Amino acid sequence: MAKGSETEAPRKRGKGTQIAVYGLLALLVLGLGGFGVDNFGGRVPHIGTVGDREIKTEDYARGLDRQINDLTRQFGQPANMDMLRAFGLDQQVLQGLINRAALDHEAALVGLSVGDEVVAQEVQGMTSFHAGAGGFNRETYAAVLRQEGLTEAAFETGVREDIARSLLQGAIVGGFVAPATMTETLYAWVGERRGVTVLRLTESSLTTPVAAPTAAELQAFYDTNIAQFTRAEAKRITYITLLPEMISDSIAIDEAALRAEYDRRIAEFVQAERRLVERLVFPDEAAATAAKARIDAGGTFESEVAGRGIRLEDIDLGDVGIADLGAAGDAVFALAEPGVVGPFDSDFGPALFRMNAILAAQETSFDEARAQLAGEAQMEAARRNIAERGEAINDALAGGATLAEVATEQGMRSGTFDYIRGGDNEDPMAGYEAFRAAADTVTADSFPEAIALEDGGIVALQLDEIVPPAPIPFAEAEADVTETWRADALRKALVAEATAIKAKVEGGSAIGSFGIVAVTPEIAREGTLPDTPRVVVEAAFGMGVSDLRVIEEGDYIAVLQLDQILPAAEEGEDAAALRATLAAQAEQGIAQDAFAAYASALTTAAGVNLDAAAVALVEAQYER
Question: Strand, helix or coil at 465?
Fold first, then answer.
């Protein structure tokens, strides 16, 4: 590997820091051949500088690309720069790069670096350069870098800088301790409990039932709330479609192919016994053994998870086989009922394993699976058949054929309905994302073309006309008007009844004398009550003992009484675990604030120069 100029002995770093560095470097190796280098590197190499350090154009592009992909997965639709700006994510990416450049600048100023031995150790630990089970491979290393257009010297310089940066950052954020007063104040607030009594009112609680509305009352309600009874602007759309289920039953089945598919998927139809398992990893065997002893003495697995500052969903392995559990496999599968075993070695260190359920072995014969396999085969064949028709459908439409003519020729189904963007559309075609995307953008000038649907179907559509917003005639909306009027009248009556009950309880009556109440002796600030909106618990933590409040949340109407305020528990494992979690969170917050202040000071001292045109050039690639 290439030699660097610095050979200072490195400061020893923790395993967590090494893992973080490996992750960052893996992204560096895998990402360098992507969007940024090809599109920008040859034209605009950097978007700015911090001191003598450049902020590379491809780094900004990759950062935006990751955020775009994250938002796309989160919202289920393509994201763009407007969405990034709305969430402030573009500035987060840019500020992160500025901070990184400032750290690199400062590390160079103070002469912080690491020697070739450390760089070699880091590079050799990257799985991207491993050849099978043999570990680091020199030829693989050279080939990967060559494929990404990198020299060994350039890559290893980047590794050296990343390590130096992590050392500098670690020196800033390490060693903070949360003040005891802060931790205790937070614990007292978070750990406090409330005892409540809730009287929920329903229609049967009313002393006087809601009377039926008169025609005049309905007409007045309709006129006053006409916006509720007005159709939104709509697009009247005609479409033709061919879906797999429309032709699948007519497709012949190849029995030999079904048998071959059954054999190929035998693991799906013949499954060994499995277990639902959670794995809690500890830093060392002593910590894991101590946790198991606390559980055996009456503690809970949940409290141990909370004490590690993680959530149950973070440690859930799902349903696993005995081979999936390694050294813990025999012990977990020996359990006849849910329980905790361990500690056993795992890929991430000593761990306890909790078995939650036994999934019995299953075997489905070919005859039993045949109907499923045949249906799947027919649907897949139908999708291929439809895909092959797409070109013919487009050719016919381009040749001047109408949707009706193409539908007749291809055996397609047609329909027309008023499509409301984001509204409740009854036609099943509106359930397809591809159809909605086309309907949202179609205009009178749009040319019909075949559009692939998510299930393998195909659709073509045209805009017939724009239907402007218009009130639904009273005669047509009367049933909806009546239902809405009654719901409104019932809500008002229940609120009035609850207000009257509250006054009577304040006057000395028992709240239980007005109906069945739900009594909760104690509930946590973040707790929930069955069939009760969150606002009830939130209200309870803003009340004093014996206070009463009318709760109105949609159709939920209740009278809430605060019975007692219980301070946070002073002793016990749960209290200790919660204190430890709060202290860790406070320390993390302090460290983050300290690093932000340090990075800001470095940036100010070094000076930041951004090329607005270069930034705009990168962002333009993500505009829609």
Answer: strand
In the three-class reduction of DSSP (H, G, I as helix; E, B as strand; rest coil), residue 45 is classed as coil
- Tell me the three state secondary structure of residue 345: coil
3.90.1150.10, 3.10.50.40, 3.40.30.10, 3.40.800.20: CATH of 273-360? 3.10.50.40
Encoded amino acid at 473, one letter: P
CA angle (193 as vertex; 190, 198 as ends), nearest 5:
130
Q: Which residues contact 219 (CB under 8 A, 6 or more apart)?
A: 474
Q: How far apart are CA 186 and CA 584, in angstroms?
A: 12
Q: Which helix (H) or strand (E) holds 17?
A: helix 15-31
Instruction: Return the HEC string of 537-576.
Output: HHHHCCCCCCCEEEEEECCEEEEEEEEEEECCCCCCHHHH
Task: Please report where in the chains the tokens 């050849």 appear, as a residue.
Answer: 131
CB atoms within 10 A of CB 62: 21
> Which residues make Cβ contacts (< 8 Å) with residue 617, sequence separation at least 6?
40, 44
Contact call for residues 288 and 350 (beta carbons, < 8 A): yes
CATH number of 233-246+377-468: 3.10.50
Provide DSSP, 404-445: HHHHHHHT-EEEEEEE-TTS---SGGGG-HHHHHHHHH--TT
Q: Which helix (H) or strand (E) holds 191?
A: helix 180-191
The whole-angstrom separation of Cα 207 and Cα 25 is 71
Quote the tokens at residue 444.
């009178």
- Alpha-carbon distance of 505 to 611, in angstroms, equals 68
Which residues lie across from 413 on neighbouring strands?
Answer: 241
Q: How far does Cα 340 stand from its chain's mean position?
A: 29
500 in Cβ contact with 515 (< 8 Å):
no
15-175+601-620 shares its CATH topology with 273-360: no
Token look-up 């179609």 returns 442
Maximum alpha-carbon separation in the chain: 92
User: Is 262 in contact with 373 (CB distance < 8 Å)?
Assistant: yes
User: Residue 133 — very low, low, confident or very high, per pLDDT cuts 50/70/90?
Assistant: low
Q: How far is CA 265 from CA 199, 259, 369, in A?
A: 56, 10, 11
Cis upstream peptide for 468 (omega within 30°):
no
User: How far, in Å, CA of 332 to CA of 295, rounded?
Assistant: 16
Per-residue model confidence as pLDDT tens digits over 265-295: 988 898 888 999 999 999 899 999 999 999 9
The CATH architecture one would assign to domain 15-175+601-620 is Orthogonal Bundle (1.10)
Residue 580, burial from CB neighbour count under 10 angstroms (0-12, 13-18, 19+): middle
Total residue count of the chain as it appears in this document: 624
Beta-ladder partners of 462:
238
8 Å CB contact between 134 and 178: no
pLDDT by residue (tens digit) across 161-204?
Answer: 888 888 887 777 777 778 888 888 888 888 899 999 999 999 99
What residue ranges in 163-301 does DSSP mark as E strands?
A: 193-201, 230-231, 234-242, 270-271, 274-281
Instruction: Tell which residue, 135, 174, 154, 185, has the closest CA to residue 16.
Output: 174
